Every structure is written in structure tokens, then in C-alpha cells.
């Protein structure tokens, strides 16, 4: 476990810590660290040690967030919250999520070792869940802080039949205290997250950093296509009601529409075939459809067009189709004053930057219900994410740390929603 690391090379220090965090993973390519799993539990002491080096007091809250508070935050001063998530997708990369935990911790530690202090109270949160891989829910940790988490999600089960409540108790959390995690908006100055871009824009433009203007809206549907099973060798091809053939046509049509509808992206990421025998005509197929856009009107219009097309294919092929919404989150804007604060911090550190929106969802989607949000992007090689080959450069990492250090020293004397750079009257 890392207890002390020389900070003469901030970029390499950050990379080393992220490498160490990535070792807390299930076997296999990349990083697989599921929410409230054994790897998550084992990671907590390491992150807690980094919090203490940064001058923070760590605490595991009711839903598995590891929260580090500085003395001023512990004393009740309104705090700036920074953070990101600890969990990963299956066989993901080492920077998605953990970058936004480790970078502000390192920035705080570097300030501390220089004898400097942030200009406001600070909390850093390593959120327990964002990816929504293990349980039928997502943004559990950030929704809890925002006070919008439905307690019913605690009864959701993973594929082993373990409820979220049980998993949290095994992690060492106390989900019976869920209500206590909700924050008072008057005691929160704002929320800032650092994240890899997960796209190619910054790399294509030769920029290390970008400032996010909005987080995309996301909706996920579960589509069930029902046909009729039969013997694959004795049932004539004509007249078959093959659910897989129909679903295949739907997948192709959905992909075609997503490619041509303006301002919309999406994917069909899971597909389950029943009965799944080599010599039986598939009777049922269930697949997921995810649609994203920062523009709510475009997302809703795209959804209507895609679902109507899928229903048309089902009718043509004599199949039945049903759909349900599993998840929906509206796109949210970043606060202009936080955009300006991040841009000015980049400028002060000699970093050119640009504004761009995020095509991925983040904990900011939930935190927006609590407070103003801001987000800093770090370029990643090839725009690749959710993949073992996810990569960033040490020099970009150092630039990010120094920007956050600069930001933390200038955030105290401000009044929302006035420009962060206006002095108090």
C-alpha cells in the first residue's frame, strides 16, 4: 500500500497511483471492479490512505461512497465537492472514474506539502457506483448525496441473487442510514469532476484538457421479441416466426437510424436468445437499446422513430414486441461560472483548452440535482474507453493536477452565480 510518494513528478506519481488502484481487479484483461464487490472492499484502505496524505478524514457512508473531508468541511463550512467513481465496467480501463478520485487527492497533497491551503472547504468523494454493471441501478452513490435515491434500489439483486443492501453490508456500509447521506444544498459550493474524455476530440485538436459544457441525456430500453419455437430441421422456412431473425433486422434498422438521426448516438449492447439450442428456432429474444443526446427533444424524437421502426418490423414478420424503459436521465448543463473557473485555471497554467459536451453519463447527472456542476476532460489515446487499452499521458496528467491545484486556491472568494473571478464586494 502506498503511504508516501515523492511529489517532484506529479504526472508520474498520478500514473503510479492509478496503476496501483488498477491492481484491485478480478482476473482477466483490463480492470473489472464491481460495485460493493471484494475488489471494491480491498481498494478502500488504499484510497483512505491517500485521503489522509491529502489532509482529509475518510469515512465510508451508507451506500459505499468513501468520503474524505478537510477540517473546515468537518467543522461545517460549505464545501466544494470533487470526485468520481471507484467501480468499473467488465474488462475496462484503469482511468475511467479513478482519475477523478486520484487527481484531486494528489492536488490537495501537493498543496499541503507546499504549505498552501485551498481557499474553501473541500470534500473528495470516491463514489461507490456509477457504471450500473452489477445491480439494476446506476449513480447510486451520487443520487444518495443529492437526496434523490429511491430506497427501493437497495432491494435490487445481482445475477447471484445478492441484494444491494446485502452487498453494502458486506462492504462495511450501513444502508439503514441512507437518509443521512443526503446533503444540504446550502452547505455545498459546487461539484467538480475530472474524467478522461472517452472520445477523440481533444487528441484530434492537440489539446491536453477540455472544459465540459453539458452532460448527455441517456435512456435505456429492454426490448422483448416473441415468436414461436420449432424443430430447426422439420419446420419449413416459409412461415417461420423466428424471433432471432426478426431481432437481427431490428438491430440493423436501429443502427441505421442512429447513424442518420442528427445529434443522437446509441447502441444495442446486450442480446439474449431463448431457448438457445443449436437445433431449435428461437422463440424469444431480449435486447437492450441505449439512446443518448445532450438535447432532450432530439433524444425523445429519435426514440419514437426507432421504436416505431422496431414495431413495424415485428408486425411484418408476425412477431410480438414489448418494450420497457430501464433507465432514464436527462442531460444537464454545467454551470457557466464553473466553466469559467476551469477555463481560467487552465489559462493560468498555460494550457490551451476548448469547450465540448460529454457524450457519456457521469455522477454529475445526479449531482446536478444538488448543486452546480463543472467538469474537466483529459485527453485519452485514440478516444478509447471501457477497454483494457485505455491510456493517458503522464504530461497530461501533470497538467490536470496543476489545474486542479490552481482551481482549489481560487475558489473561496466567490459568489454564485457570479463569475468565480469577481471579488466579494
UniProtKB/TrEMBL annotation:
Its cofactor is Mn(2+); Zn(2+). Keywords: Hydrolase, Manganese, Metal-binding, Zinc. One of its GO terms (molecular function) is metal ion binding. The keyword Signal does not apply. CDD domains: M20_bAS (cd03884). Zn(2+) 2 binds at residues 96, 131, 386. This is Allantoate deiminase. It comes from Vreelandella arcis.
Amino acid at each position: 500500500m502506498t503511504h508516501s510518494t515523492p511529489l517532484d513528478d506529479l504526472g508520474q506519481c498520478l500514473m503510479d497511483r492509478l496503476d496501483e488502484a488498477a491492481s484491485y481487479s478480478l482476473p482477466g484483461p483490463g480492470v473489472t471492479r464491481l460495485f460493493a464487490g471484494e475488489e471494491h472492499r480491498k481498494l478502500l484502505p488504499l484510497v483512505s490512505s491517500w485521503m489522509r496524505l491529502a489532509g482529509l478524514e475518510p469515512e465510508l457512508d451508507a451506500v459505499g461512497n468513501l468520503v474524505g473531508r478537510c477540517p473546515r468541511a468537518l467543522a461545517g463550512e460549505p464545501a466544494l465537492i470533487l470526485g468520481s467513481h471507484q467501480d468499473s465496467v467488465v474488462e475496462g480501463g484503469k482511468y475511467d472514474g479513478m482519475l477523478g478520485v486520484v487527481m484531486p487527492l494528489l492536488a490537495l497533497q501537493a498543496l499541503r506539502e507546499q504549505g498552501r491551503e485551498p481557499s474553501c472547504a473541500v470534500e473528495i468523494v470516491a463514489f461507490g457506483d456509477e457504471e450500473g454493471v452489477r445491480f439494476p441501478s446506476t449513480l447510486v452513490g451520487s443520487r444518495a448525496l443529492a437526496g434523490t435515491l429511491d430506497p427501493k434500489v437497495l432491494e435490487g439483486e445481482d445475477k447471484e441473487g445478492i441484494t444491494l443492501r446485502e452487498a453494502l453490508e458486506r462492504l462495511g456500509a450501513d444502508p439503514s442510514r441512507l437518509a443521512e447521506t443526503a446533503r444540504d444544498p446550502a452547505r455545498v459550493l459546487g461539484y467538480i469532476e475530472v474524467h478522461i474524455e472517452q472520445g477523440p476530440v481533444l487528441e484530434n485538436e492537440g489539446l491536453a484538457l477540455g472544459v465540459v459544457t453539458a452532460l448527455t441525456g441517456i435512456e435505456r430500453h429492454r426490448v422483448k421479441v416473441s415468436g414461436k419455437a420449432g424443430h430447426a430441421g422439420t419446420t419449413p422456412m416459409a412461415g417461420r416466426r423466428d424471433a432471432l431473425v426478426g431481432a437481427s433486422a431490428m438491430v440493423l434498422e436501429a443502427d441505421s437510424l442512429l447513424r442518420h438521426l442528427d445529434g443522437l448516438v446509441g447502441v444495442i449492447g446486450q442480446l439474449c436468445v431463448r431457448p438457445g439450442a443449436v437445433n431449435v428456432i428461437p422463440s424469444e429474444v431480449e435486447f437492450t437499446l441505449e439512446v443518448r443526446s445532450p438535447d432532450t427533444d432530439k433524444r425523445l424524437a429519435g426514440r419514437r422513430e426507432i421504436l416505431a421502426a422496431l414495431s413495424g418490423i415485428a408486425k411484418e414478420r408476425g412477431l410480438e414486441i414489448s418494450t420497457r424503459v430501464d433507465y432514464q436521465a436527462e442531460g444537464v448543463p454545467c454551470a457557466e461560472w464553473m466553466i469559467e473557473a476551469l477555463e481560467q485555471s487552465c489559462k493560468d497554467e498555460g494550457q490551451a483548452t476548448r469547450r465540448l459536451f460529454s457524450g457519456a453519463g457521469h455522477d454529475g447527472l445526479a449531482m446536478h440535482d444538488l448543486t452546480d456542476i463543472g467538469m474537466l476532460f483529459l485527453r485519452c489515446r485514440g478516444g478509447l474507453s471501457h477497454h483494457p487499452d485505455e491510456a493517458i499521458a503522464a504530461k497530461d496528467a501533470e497538467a490536470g493536477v496543476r489545474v486542479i491545484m490552481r482551481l482549489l486556491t481560487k475558489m473561496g472568494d466567490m459568489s454564485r452565480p457570479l463569475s468565480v473571478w469577481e471579488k466579494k464586494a
